[in-house]
Amino acid sequence: MSAPGAATAIVEDRYPTRLGHAVEPIPRSEPVVWGGKADGPLPPHELARFDELGYLVRPGTLTDDLIGPLRGETDRIAVGLEPDDPRIIREPRGSIRSIFEPHLLSALVAQVVDLDTVLPIARQLLGSDVYIHQARINLMPGFTGTGFYWHSDFETWHAEDGMADIRAVSCSIALTRNYPYNGSLMVIPGSHHTFYPCVGATPDNHHGTSLVAQQVGTPDETTLCKAVDHHGIDQFTGSPGTALWFDANLLHGSGSNITPLPRSNVFLVFNSVDNRLGEPFAAPRPRPRYLAAR
C-alpha cells in the first residue's frame, strides 16, 4: 500500500452537512466503482452488483487458521495498552466496544490487510492505490452489546475528517457467525447514490461520545422512512471469515445484541490515495490520527 502525502486544503464542498436547517438530499457526483475487470479479482457481475446496491458479500475472505487467532487478538492488544488509551472504546457498562488501529498493534491484523482476498479488491473498487483511513476490531458481546444508529460513514468522514470525495470503501470481516438476531449489520441498498445532509452543528471533540452513541450526523426519521420506503433494508448474515464490502456513503446501522451469542469483526476502511484528507468541512478541528489517518 502507498501512504498518502500531506493533506491539501480543499475549498469546494459538494456535500454540505451539519447544517442549521434541513435541506434536500444531494445526488452523488462520483462513480461508485472506479476500476474495471482488469484491475482486480472481482468479475463484472460483482462490480455491477456493488455499483447498484452499494455492498457485496464475499465468503471465505479469511481462512479458518486465521479466524481463531484473530478472536484472541482483542484481549492481547487490550492487555498491552493503558486502560485509558483513547483507542479503546468501551460500552457504558465497561466492556470493550472497539479497538482502533489494530493493524498497527497486531502483526496478525496487519497480515489481514495485505491478503489477496482483501487489498486487491479495495484497489479495484477505488481504481487506485489505497491506504488505511481507519481500522478497528468491533465487539458486540452477548446481552450487553449496543447497536449503531443509522448513518453514512462518509458523512462523518467528510464533516469531521475533511474527506472531499466519496472514494472510500469499508471491509467488515466476520470473526463470529452473524445471525439475524445478534446485532448484525443492516444496510439500505442503493442509498449510497444519494448524500443525505444532516442537521446540527458538530460539538467540539465529538468523537469522544459519538463512538459510543452517535447523535449528530445521523439522518432524521422522515429521511430514513423515505429511504427505506424506496430501497428497503438488507441484513448481513454469514459464517466467520465472510467479508461485507460496502460503499462509504451507504446508510447502515445495527441493533443491540440481547442474545447470548457474541458478534465481532475486523473493520478496515480503505481510502484512495487520490482522495487525501483536507480540513474538516463541518468540525472545529480534525479528529485524531487513529480515527482518520493522514
Automatic annotation (TrEMBL):
Organism: Mycolicibacterium llatzerense
PANTHER family listed in its UniProt record: ECTOINE DIOXYGENASE, PHYTANOYL-COA DIOXYGENASE DOMAIN CONTAINING 1
Highest rank taxon of the organism: Bacteria
Gene Ontology MF, one: 2-oxoglutarate-dependent dioxygenase activity
Job of this protein: Involved in the biosynthesis of 5-hydroxyectoine, called compatible solute, which helps organisms to survive extreme osmotic stress by acting as a highly soluble organic osmolyte. Catalyzes the 2-oxoglutarate-dependent selective hydroxylation of L-ectoine to yield (4S,5S)-5-hydroxyectoine.
Cofactor dependence: Fe(2+)
Ranges that cross the membrane: none
Subunit annotation: Homodimer.
Span of the signal peptide: none
Broad class of enzyme this protein falls into: oxidoreductase
Gene3D superfamilies the record matches: q2cbj1_9rhob like domain (2.60.120.620)
Record's protein name: Ectoine hydroxylase
Catalytic activity, reaction form: L-ectoine + 2-oxoglutarate + O2 = 5-hydroxyectoine + succinate + CO2
